[in-house]
Amino acid sequence: xxxxxxxxxxxxxxxxxxxxxxxxxxxxxxxxxxxxxxxxxxxxxxxxxxxxxxxxxxxxxxxxxxxxxxxxxxxxxxxxxxxxxxxxxxxxxxxxxxxxxxxxxxxxxxxxxxxxxxxxxxxxxxxxxxxxxxxxxxxxxxxxxxxxxxxxxxxxxxxxxxxxxxxxxxxxxxxxxxxxxxxxxxxxxxxxxxxxxxxxxxxxxxxxxxxxxxxxxxxxxxxxxxxxxxxxxxxxxxxxxxxxxxxxxxxxxxxxxxxxxxxxxxxxxxxxxxxxxxxxxxxxxxxxxxxxxxx
Length: 295
Fold this sequence. Notes:
By secondary structure, the chain is α+β, with helices and mostly antiparallel strands. It has helices spanning 23-33, 37-55, 108-112, 142-153, 187-200, 203-208, 213-220, 242-251, 254-264, 282-290; strands at 4-10, 15-21, 63-69, 77-82, 87-91, 100-102, 105-106, 117-123, 130-135, 157-165, 171-181, 226-233, 267-270, 277-280. The strands form four sheets. The chain has a five-stranded antiparallel beta sheet, with helices on both faces. Strands 5-4-3-8-9 form a five-stranded antiparallel beta sheet. α1 (23-33) packs across α2 and α9 packs antiparallel against α10 (282-290). The protein is globular, with a radius of gyration of 21 Å.
């Protein structure tokens, strides 16, 4: 099953929904960051949520950053999506020991923590990005995203995110959905959606059984006339380049760059999203310094 986003709306125009299947992209993140299972689940959920939210952006050059700081042992969990839902991210402590609610059930909430914030940053080409932040509700990420939409954007939302881990620590299944009520939706529709969420249960187990993203939405929204608006692939994608890293070095300023040359004689800069290492020799650093304007 390929990684993809599916966008849909009920024919009465009262409910919009998006789902993601992202097993490969979460597994790619696990491989890059060598995450252990608890970190894999937390980072995977953040990547899946950010991907769906990024795909909601209308601006072609837009991006969305999801930052979770809960005070738990994982530290900061961060995911960045482009406007097509292609996503990248990292977790500050990828090697946190296994934390379980019960045997076989990872306790992501305890690993993330609830003493902190969930922050959403939308860069849509304006002078300043939009920043919205809420206190963490559960640390489970899906619940917190649903609460973010209610508190910051006043949109009633149901969110489910799941990452299923194999015994060899690889990702068996990963995906999720966001279902949002539009103006005019009444209590009866809310009750039907809540019943669907309860009936379907664990997203990762549903996807592991072979159900795709469209099937997931149709299962949760059973009984609704559902119109599929769009499907498109998504992937873990980093936009780092030597040019960008060079600009970052130049932005350090003459004094700091001079100190780097004097103390280290070279530089090995690692991308936090994909772990690619960019090596700069003394001669290259001196060339950058020579090309900078005097202070």
